[in-house]
Amino acid sequence: DTEVTQTPKHLVMGMTNKKSLKCEQHMGHRAMYWYKQKAKKPPELMFVYSYEKLSINESVPSRFSPECPNSSLLNLHLHALQPEDSALYLCASSQNSGNTIYFGEGSWLTVV
Amino acid sequence: RKEVEQDPGPFNVPEGATVAFNCTYSNSASQSFFWYRQDCRKEPKLLMSVYSSGNEDGRFTAQLNRASQYISLLIRDSKLSDSATYLCVVNYNQAGTALIFGKGTTLSVSS
Fold first, then answer.
1. Per-residue pLDDT at B39 exceeds 90
2. 20 to 30 A from A80, CA-CA: which of A41, B6, B18, B105?
3. Using omega within 30 degrees of 0 as the cis cutoff, is the peptide bond preceding A69 cis?
4. To the nearest whole percent, how much of chain A has pLDDT over 90?
C-alpha cells in the first residue's frame, strides 16, 4: 500500500467551482510533486516543492494553484477549470528532489 | 529540452518469453534512472532503479549506457502478471530536479 494518501479519490466539478485536492505523506520526505496524467499518456510534471518551497512550475495555468502548508501536506487548489483539465492527478513524494518518487493512488478529476 | 523516448508498443508476447524495452534520454547531466510499472487505472510504482554497472532483480535486468544515453529493461520468463505499461524515468535538472517520464511501453503477456 502506498504511504502517500490523496483525497478525494474522485471529484466531479463544474467550470465555475472552486475545489482542492489534498495529499499527505508521513515518510519524512522533503520533496513533493503534482503530476497530471491523461488516458494512455505518461504522468506530466506540474509542480515540485522542495523543503516546502516551490522549486519547479512547469508553466501550469494559474487556474491550478499549489500550496504546501507543511512538510507533510500538499494541496492543489482548482478554480475555473476547463473540461480538458479532466485527468488523473497524482501526488508523489521523495526523500529529496530527483530521488525515487512514491505516488499516491491519485485523484480522478472530471470537469463538466 | 528534456526528452525521454521509449520503444513504441504494444509488445504482445507469450508466457515464458524474454522481452526487452529500450529508452533514450536527452539530458546528459541526468544522474538518476528508473523503471516504473503502471497497471491500468493505477498509480505508477517503482520497478527498479538503474545503476551504471547494471542491476538485476529476479527476472528483471536493467542496463545503463551513459555514453549513448540509453537505458534498457530485460524481462525473462514473462508471466501473465507482467502485463502492464513500463515507464522509463530520468531525473531532469532545472531550478530543482524532478523526474520526467517516457511515454511508456505496453506489454501484454498471453497464455
1. yes
2. A41
3. no
4. 86
